Amino acid sequence: MITPVFTAHIISHTHWDREWYLNSQYTNEWLVPFFDSLFEMLDREPRYRFVLDGQTAMIEDCEEQLARQGRASAAFRARLREYVRARRVLIGPYYLQPDWQLVSDEALVRNLLIGRQTANELGGAMQVGWLLDNFGQISQAPQIHAQFGLRALFVWRGIALEPREIRSEFEWESPDGSAVTAIYLLASYRNAMRLAEFAPVLRARVENEIRKLAPFATTPNVLLLNGYDQEMRPDDILPHLDRGALAFDDARVLQSTPEEYVARIAAHQPRLQKIRGALYSGRYIAVFPGILSARIYLKQQNDFCQRQLEQHAEPLAAMAWALGRDYPRAQLDQAWKTLLKNHPHDSICGVSIDDVHTDMEARFADASALAARVTDDAFSALVANVDTTRDPNALGAWIIFNPLLRARDALIALDADLPRDVVFRDDGDHALAAQRGDDGRWIVATQLPACGYATLIAIRAPFVIASAAKQSPTHDLEIASSRSTLLAMTTDATQRIIENAYIALRVNADGTLDLTDKARGVTYPALAYFEDGGDAGDTYDYAYPRRDQIITSKNQRAEISFLETGPLRARVRIAHTLDLPDGLTADRAARSETTRPFEIVTEVIVEANSPRVQFRTTVNNTLTDHRLRVCFPTRLRADVSSAETQFDVVTRPIVPPRFDDTTMPENVRRLIIGAREPEPVTIFPQRAFVDVSDGARGVAVLNRGLPEYEILPDATTIALTLFRSVGWIARTDLLTRIGDAGPMIATPDAQCLRAMTFEYALVPHAGHWRAGNVLAHAEEFNCDWLVARTDIHPGSLAAHESFLRLDGAPLKVTAIKRAEEGDALIVRFFNPSDETVHATLTAVFEIRRAFVVTLAEDTPTPLAVRDQHSVALAAAPHKIVTLRLEIARRQIAWANRAPRRVAPRLTRAAPTSAITPRDIADEERRAAALKDILAEKPRAVGGLLSAVGFSEESARLQLEIETVRRAYLEARLSAVLLKKNSLPADAQKEFEPIIREIGVALNEARVIKRALEYVVAVYE
After folding, report:
1. How far is CA 372 from CA 337, 663, 906, 910, in A?
2. What gap in Å lies between CA 528 and CA 722, rounded to an integer?
3. Does residue 844 sit in helix, strand or coil?
4. Tens digit of pLDDT for each residue in 504-531?
5. For 64-73, 427-436, 937-946, which range has the lowest pLDDT when averaged over its residues?
6. Longest C-alpha distance within the chain, in Å?
7. Residues contacting 124, CB < 8 A, separation 6+
8. pTM for the complete prediction?
9. Does the pLDDT of residue 359 top 80, yes or no?
10. Among 3, 334, 712, 713, which is least packed by CB within 10 angstroms?
11. What is the rounded end-to-end Cα distance, in angstroms, of the chain?
12. What pLDDT was estimated at residue 953?
């Protein structure tokens, strides 16, 4: 058969999608029979081992279901602990299986921290990473895993090797040099699913897989993954192994575990090829770039909640703890767990049924409320204890908290019903420049301390210093200051020009902007136009219709009005009304000839002391099947773009080389079994910015919760996707994807028929992104200060304080929190540059001991403490650094004042129902037609398979039946969901039994269909 002798490792597992074509209300019910079945198997077969999908949340979900059924979850937990300790059930290392590209740096860390803690309580976590099905891989995945002590991981999507270079293992290296052994799931995570279920071809299937994988092996070991999505019955393979059904002369077959497979590979010490950085190729298996912008409102809500926790709740709770208050660990853990339950790839990617994403919005609201409660409590306590008595005649005091670990200039909008003859003073008693906004708020220019707060007071002014700047009567400069020359800005509404020390901005008649970078003497014309095109894709992938119609705002009249004209801030309202097609034609090949007006309203903001141009665009989407982007033609000569990702800044080619599959070996073609992108991906993920540069100068576009960008070669245009509007989980008629991505179920809410607001910014700069300080700009744009108004009162805290300060650009801080164990603060940051950065962290608290620790907060390396308040260190290139500071907590005399609400809460716009009677009727007709086809299939096939064994003919016929059955159940579920969601909430409960019934049947149909595909492959 194969030479030399191979060992085939069968790893039994289930890949548990918590939500997808059903929401967790139903799938969690399956966990009880699943675990009952698993425990029965483990008891019957003492050598049986099973992998629990690398996650622990499904254990918690099962315990909740048991409690609902009145069964003892303690007994379940004790029994599971016994199996975990015996390494017969492998759990963790994660809490859930997230999409790694769409969540924050810290969300990835917390997922591992919580997963490891939960697993350790039950006997220990699996000691390898398990990236079975996330849609692309981030560059720092190896370093993150290595810092958690995981030196190997299993990975599938995104591998970008040339066909003749493909091997079953490789060394995957992060930019910092951290490396792990990556086990490449060449034949997916299901290539040995349900072997025992189809026992007559079990031997042939195993032999077929060994033959298929052996040419790519780096050692005499191949991998057989014995499981699939929501696999509820562990495959009973041990009796077949024991009786020799899988005995070959030149291959040994055994049940194994991921840890044992990795150990076997390591024992051979193969020379592995090295792959460095992010993996985002859909050549062999799809990475689904359309998920970056599907249901964009989910990405925005997630971004908001992450920033609430990371920038407000945890830092403020940690500072209050350092001053003697209790740390609200339980509340923060609950908030994180609630948020993390929205991070699995089928959830945050937006590729599930509408019900799933409705549940997600409720969870986002819950996580936001929990984070806000912690923030309110900690900040209100600090505010109540700040001494504001330096001027007893003050009209009021405002405490402003800055989460950044560096000081920053800020224009603070204060809600203050004050007379016009007031002066705002900072805690150094300096008069501050202020401007009355058009909404009655005061805009005040001040400086904020690093990770700390400042206090402003308002007093009656004995006189008002007139401003020579051009003003409209409603935007008078209320007071000048010694910094007014730095804050000089002129606005000419007639000429539509705004200018400060850094930039000059002209608003053109069509609403585009001509931006002059004054330091470099260059103008970027016609920026920020809108582009709308058809989208005949699905939630997984954007797809242009065969006959597309691209409509832009260029050369179309815009309504322009200047709302504020400085001198501290200028604000312009630009309104476009575009006539856009109201959807696609019936055959989905073109955009509709029927058009409707579509309004896009943008506020453009320029501040006196900043080179950033800020945008806030609002739409009320009433149209379907389209994509809206905002475009910035930079006209720079650049071959690559740079974008922030998790713990890194990644460089990608603007025009990647095309695939040449003409010479692809046949044995590689056999590996391609799922959906894929036939052309190189040019739509990429980002965190807070994307940048292009010609080396001498560059342009960056910043964003808040808008993770998709593309660089268009024409004029090197940065295209920022605002939203995609589509109506299906998955379709099979896309021009941008080959193959089956998921169930064909209607998802009208994915059309995003709702009011949406998008925030982004533009920064011209010198050199590349680092020389232009782009990361710091993006960090400031994405980090909100908090403001609380208070009265005049004594307190134990000074009027101005910096708790922590980090010196060392371009380091970016991602966490300030209390340590998982012990009385210590954790400060985490990363160095995105190619050079070592020398950093100093200074604390107002006495530092007794300091350590560099891993992401797991272990393996401490001591740091010298200077003057009891600072530590210095060198951050290596691309290194993630976590500091543990053991501090002397201060015990201040806390004044008890009623807490006040100071933190913003998540707000969300209600979607407009897009379900029509015709939609329901169309899906009912589709289901009926498929049911008729199913009825015409031979009824005896099932009996043939069970009674007389397998044949190629019967297997193919059964596969045809199961393919139609799956499609029928999808259509039926689609119709039922549409009908349910078209009714008021109080009338929807009656649909639960039918959804439950269809869901169980669909799950089984999906599994059987996939298994039969492998059966049929035996005959090919």
Report:
1. 15, 57, 9, 21
2. 12
3. coil
4. 999 999 999 999 999 999 999 999 999 9
5. 937-946
6. 102
7. 84, 85, 92
8. 0.96
9. yes
10. 3
11. 17
12. 86
How does pLDDT run across 955-996, given as a tens digit for each residue?
Answer: 899 999 999 999 999 999 999 999 999 999 999 999 999 999
Q: Going edge to edge, which strands form the sheet with 613-620? A: 559-565, 569-581, 595-607, 613-620, 755-766, 697-703, 689-693, 640-645, 648-653
Q: What is the mean pLDDT of residues 603-629?
A: 97
Q: Are 49 and 12 in contact (CB under 8 A)?
A: yes
Bridge partner residues of 230 (DSSP): none
Mean pLDDT along residues 690-710? 98
Alpha helices (H) in 248-295, listed in sequence order: 258-268
Euclidean distance between CA atoms 916 and 926, whole angstroms: 16
Q: What is the mean pLDDT of residues 885-893?
A: 92
**For residue 282, what are the CA distances in angstroms to 4, 291, 509, 673, 686?**
32, 13, 42, 12, 18
Pairing of strands 434-436, 442-448: antiparallel
Residue-wise pLDDT for 822-856, tens only, equals 999 999 999 999 999 999 999 999 999 999 999 99
**What is the DSSP code string of 906-941?**
---PPPPP---HHHHHHHHHHHHHHHHHHHHS-TTH
**Residue-level length of the chain:** 1020
**Alpha carbons 230 and 183: distance in angstroms, whole number:** 22
Token pair listed for 805: 């300060």
Burial class (CB in 10 A: 0-12, 13-18, 19+), 39: middle
- Within 8 A by CB and 6+ apart from 69, the residues are 32
d(CA 672, CA 674): 6
How many other CB atoms are found less than 10 A from the CB of residue 695? Answer: 11
Question: In sequence order, which ranges of 760-916 are alpha helices (DSSP H)?
Answer: 774-781
Q: Are 964 and 933 in contact (CB under 8 A)?
A: yes
The pair of structure tokens assigned to 123 is 């006997």
801 residue type, one letter:
E
Q: Is 164 left (phi over 0), alpha (psi -120 to 50) or beta?
A: alpha
pLDDT at 328: 98
- Would you state the structure tokens that stand for residue 301, as one six-digit string? 């809500």
Q: Please report, rounded to a whole number, the percentage of residues in the chain having pLDDT higher than 70.
A: 95
Q: 129-131 and 152-155: which strand pairing?
A: parallel
Task: Count CB-CB contacts under 10 A for residue 204.
Answer: 15
Q: Which two tokens stand for residue 11?
A: 């790893």
